Amino acid sequence: MPVEEVCDGVSAEDDAKTGSDVPFLLEDRVKEKVPWKEVLRRKVGKKCSCSSARVKALLVDSIPIIKWLPRYQFKDWIIGDAMSGLIIGILLVPQSIAYSLLAEQDPIYGLYTSFFASIIYALLGTSRHISVGMFGVLCLLVGQVVDRELTLAGYSSDTNQTIMGIVDNSTGPICDRSCYAIMVGATLTFTAGVYQVLMGLLQVGFVSVFLSDSLLSGFATGASLTILTSQIKYFLGLHLPRVQGWGSLIKTWVSLLKNLGHTNVCDLITSMICLLVLVPTKELNDRFKAKLKAPIPFELFVVIAATLASHFGKFKETYGSDVAGNIPTGFMPPQLPNWSLIPNIAVDAFSIAIVGFAITVSLSEMFAKKHGYMVDPNQEMYAIGFCNIIPSFFRCFTTSAALTKTLVKESTGCQTQVSGLVTALVLLLVLLVIAPLFYSLQKCVLAVIIVVNLRGALRKFGDIPQMWRVNRVDTIIWLVTMSASALVNTELGLLVGVLVSAFFVLGRTQSAQVLQLGQAGDRELFEDIGSYKGLQTQPGVAVFRYEAPIYYANQTLFKKSLYRSVGLDPLKEKARRRKLEKQKNQKQGVEDQKQEMDVSTNVYLLEHTSLHTLVIDCSPVLFLDTAGVNALKEVCKDYKELGVNVLLAQCNTSVIDSLRRGGYYDPKNATKEIKFHTVGDAISYAQSLKTQNGDCDTVV
Questions:
Q1: End-to-end distance of the chain based on CA atoms, in angstroms?
Q2: For the whole model, what pTM was predicted?
Q3: Which domain-ending residue is among 489, 507, 525?
């Protein structure tokens, strides 16, 4: 982005006449400037217009099933959808009961949650393949909040007791521990859903791109360690309160080790047997999934066998084993959230909303890309938000997409969300008829199911060496996020991961260096001299590239790197001259002083007589802020004083606009804007100026 300063009577026209190499110019397209009021009026008019076509389009966009269901290819798709829906429904029965344990809820509420989520997402979601229901990390976050609020309300930490807490709840009479637990869970879910819908209204679905795969993977793995630790007490049949606060994982292990002497042998043996059955069979399912039409539901078989053994062996009465207890049939009447709890759980709900949305959008986009269709992130925000808001009135807790069940759903022939409706029918059958039969199911069996489903996240530890070889920055983000989630606090781990990711992005702009470029033969190709051999430099012209934006955080580093690469720091040169001037005043003899000053101030010029122009390739500079423009102005001014011209080449339109607005081109000083679209143009122009008669101080 050069500007020629005309000096000593030599004008731009004179340059052209005397043979100056005029760079190739592109004519700017004049853009019509629309007043902001007019822009606002158009947008409001577009959003608020009311017509039959507008209402129809809004309805179709808000409820996508209206669009795709009439086009449903019944003969081709129904078998795959029915099969996948049936398989997912069977898998969800034991998992819904198990994850209720993780969320500190009764089993029936897990079944409610999976049932309503399957229906609502089928109506509102844009992904054809993801399975929405309970996700282990979210259940853990919900369980932590529920346990904290139960403790604050005065309820016992022993889940076998149903003593009344001292709580004034506005939705009805004082209730027992189970009643208050689902009240907290439902209020938390409602608040998280409101956050998600508001984010959809504000069109902030793009925020998911700021949560990288390494961040989400590290967070899920760290949370998986916490989940694993929280389930060990059920393996051992111990009655221990859930540890709250920072360092809960370490504190829990300390508590477990102290209470090993109280282990329930019956629960321990049952846990070991279930592990020995489920781990190998799950591995077999994974190994032969390409040959199996559908995964074998070993979890359901284990649940049935364990329930029968517990019932006929009277494990609860004889050995004191914890069991699922009474699971009612049918549905309870809806209830409003407890509004007085919202201030207590508002911050927790926000982190849950972000995690739930990020998981759902990342999975939906992954499978959409795989199968060649598009999903709308903002509509996904609405869908998952209403999957939380509406079920919260029916005593449900937070949901999101779940990777394991989504993979099963895809592999069993799923084509559309009709499979979600089939899953809801299976769960409805369980809720109306089968649920009470799980009364004698031991909680340790549910804990085993939870732990076995953590295998995928825990396997990530074995991938660390490969991750390190591929990308060390992503590996560090993964390790830091995982460690913070597991060892410090689950919610804090997500925030730490975001901050570390932002730090590395900022650090990359801070660590960018100025590279000296050379030309590859006669081609218009300029690359780093330090990276490639055989590159040629031009006499009297040095070409440099800065591979980062120039803004307030790195403008000082840019100048230092540039001065170091050129081999001349103008600021140090000025300081040296000021020092010589000071010494001049202290010496005697006017003629001797003058002679010494002339020799000293020309040391640099004698050593660098060939360098007359510095070209900066700005193609990697995506943007400039005010500090960046000022930095370039300082560079030009400093080198001008030393007789070195500075040219900017290959600036994008954003950078050009920033230079114009920032006063880089100053008409008061008779400067003229000249654009160099290639580095070669800038070099040719610089060399032609050197051959001109007359003395031009600088070309910028």
A1: 7
A2: 0.74
A3: 507
Helices (H), 484-589: 490-510, 555-566, 570-586
Domain that holds residue 646: 514-576+610-693
| Helix intervals (H) in 393-454 | 403-411, 418-429, 443-452
- CB-based contact 223:136 (threshold 8 Å): yes
From the list 90, 93, 113, the residue with the least C-alpha distance to 103 is: 113
Cβ–Cβ < 8 Å for 136, 110: no
77 and 206 in a single domain? The answer is yes
Tokens 């919610």 found at: 491
Contact of 4 with 671, CB cutoff 8 Å: yes
Per-residue pLDDT at 691: 59
pLDDT of 118: 93
Sheet containing 645-649, strands listed edge to edge, beginning at the edge strand earlier in sequence: 526-528, 514-519, 541-546, 613-617, 645-649
Measuring CA to CA, how many Å separate 448 from each of 89, 233, 256, 312?
19, 11, 17, 21
Determine the pLDDT at residue 4. 39
172 falls in which pLDDT band (50, 70, 90)? very low
Say if residue 689 is in the same domain as residue 558: yes
Joined together, the tokens standing for residue 16 give 């052209």
How many domains, the chain? 2
Query: For the chain, what percentages of helix, strand and coil (3-state, to nearest 5) are there?
Result: 65, 5, 30
Mean of pLDDT values over 72-91: 87
Least confident of 146-155, 292-301, 553-562, 626-635: 292-301
DSSP string, 137-167: HHHHHHHHHHHHHHHHTT--S-TT--PPP--
End residue of a domain, out of 478, 507, 536: 507
* Extended beta strands in 115-267, E state: 132-133
Q: Which residues of 586-619 are buried (b: 16+ CB within 10 A; e: fewer)?
A: eeeeeeebeeebeebeeebeeeeeebbbbbbbbb
Q: Do 488 and 520 share a structural domain?
A: no
Contact 494, 355 (CB under 8 A): yes
Please, what is the average pLDDT of the chain?
81
Query: Average pLDDT of 546-552?
Result: 88
Question: Partners of 699 in the beta sheet?
Answer: 4
CB 143 within 8 Å of CB 427? no
Strand 400-401 with 132-133, pairing = antiparallel
Share of the chain above pLDDT 90, in %: 16
Distance, CA of 653 to CA of 252 (rounded, Å): 58
Contact 345, 145 (CB under 8 A): yes
**Which DSSP state fits 42?**
H
Considering the domain architecture, whether residues 482 and 537 belong to the same structural domain is answered as: no
Token code pair at residue 129: 């393949």
Residue 23 lies in a domain: no
79: how many CB neighbours lie within 10 A of its CB?
A: 12
CATH number at residue 565: 3.30.750.24
- For residues 615 and 541, is the Cβ–Cβ distance under 8 A? yes
Altogether, the residues listed in the chain come to a count of 700
* Alpha-carbon distances of 685 from 4, 279, 383, 681, rounded to whole Å: 11, 72, 59, 6
Number of Cβ within 10 Å of residue 432's Cβ equals 11
CA 672 to chain centroid, in Å, comes to 45
Rg (the chain; Cα; Å): 35
Query: 526: which strand partners?
Result: 519
Residue ranges of alpha helices (H) inside 288-330 are 298-313, 315-319
CB atoms within 10 A of CB 553: 14
Q: Of 263, 618, 307, 612, give the one whose Cα is nearest residue 434.
A: 307
Domain assignment of residue 40, yes or no: no
Whether residues 472 and 548 fall in one domain: no
Do 185 and 249 lie in one domain? The reply is yes
Angle at 647 between CA 536 and CA 691, to 5 degrees: 70
Q: What is the pLDDT of residue 13?
A: 43
294 pLDDT exceeds 80?
no
